[in-house]
Amino acid sequence: MTTVSAVKLIQPGEIQSMPADDTPLLVYPNVADLYKDRSTRFAQLAKDHDLADWLQFCAQLTAAQATAISEIDAGEVLEENFVRESLKHGVPPLSVSTWKAGEDWQKALQAFITAYEKQEVQEPVKKVFAEFKKADAAELAKQAQAYLTLDEAEVKPEWAPFISAVLQLIWSKRAAAMTHAKIYSGENSLCPVCGSHPVTSVVRVGDRDSHRYLICSLCSSEWYGPRARCTNCDTPKEVTMLGETRESLVQGECCDDCGGYLKLMFQSRDPMMDPVADDLATIQLDMALEKEGFQRTGRNLFLMAIAQSEKTDT
């Protein structure tokens, strides 16, 4: 069982403010490489891992996304003024709250199914996928909308990974097409592009060196988040980082004020890291942090299926 210890206690005076230079506050996803790189990372993490089968399944899932993304329609291109005004006033231009599963869902679903059928998957997965393929179209659309808006009780857990994969394809492709507007005021616990929860946060390298970004669990957009500040309640009080070791790639940034935590990853410690893949590979850290009394504030669209998988294996 993973245990955690305090890595660093950060005082309010050390909390990072918004950057005064030209550091981008909002970065849209590069869908040309996103899912291909994620699949590679999942496969790498699966080696000698306790959750090897699950991580390998996710590698195949994201490999199918990498194939299908070129077939996904970005939909109607939003007017630049609309996007700018939406971001300026904190209203997600691609809000999940107003989405209705329609032609975009059906096209993305078929593109994903076609791509996933080319994967060499294990027999138990083939059976579940076959049931998913045969499911009533209206029922699948209903479950997609429910899962998108956190109504997980209406979603079949074994179908959640496939539904998630299709939803991510739709939103990441739409977000990638919005490169013309990057106005963002910062300091928001939800994605400014679509309104979804972050999956984790990452301290980047390169031209964004040492700056922390929250990563959207749905559209994969990244938005600036001042370091050492709770991303859930934005309290001015101190926060604590808890991790397996001081050098671990993944830490839990924990808030004693609201009792929440969001994982924090350091790209400099492993340039190949991926927010979604490394989040799932460190599920033991989540268990340890919850044992310490903290509750996860981020969302990984594949976590629901992990719980079902563990239940089935016991």
Describe this structure in words.
The chain has 314 residues and is of the alpha+beta class. The chain has two domains: 5-25 and 182-301, FdhE-like domain (FdhE-like fold); 32-176, FdhE-like domain (FdhE-like fold), CATH 3.90.1670. Helices cover 39% and strands 13% of the residues. It has ten helices and nine strands. Strands 1, 2, 3, 4, 5, 6, 7, 8 and 9 form a nine-stranded mixed sheet that branches. A hairpin with a 5-residue loop joins strand 7 and strand 8. Helix 2 crosses helix 4 (103-116) and helix 6 crosses helix 7. The longest helix has 17 residues, at 52-68.
What is the CATH C level class of the largest domain, in words? Alpha Beta
User: Main beta sheet, described?
Assistant: 9 strands, mixed
CATH A-level architecture of the largest domain: Alpha-Beta Complex
Alpha plus pi helix count: 10
How many structural domains does the protein architecture include? 2
Total strands:
9
Helical content class: 25-40%
Order of helices and strands: EEHHHHHHHEEEEEEHHEH
What is the radius of gyration computed over CA atoms, rounded to a whole number of angstroms? Answer: 19 Å
SSE layout:
Layout: E1 5-10, E2 26-27, H1 31-46, H2 52-68, H3 80-88, H4 103-116, H5 123-134, H6 137-148, H7 160-176, E3 198-203, E4 212-216, E5 222-224, E6 239-243, E7 250-254, E8 260-266, H8 275-281, H9 283-291, E9 295-296, H10 303-313
Parallel strand pairs: 3-8, 8-9
Antiparallel strand pairs: 1-6, 2-5, 3-4, 4-5, 6-7, 7-8
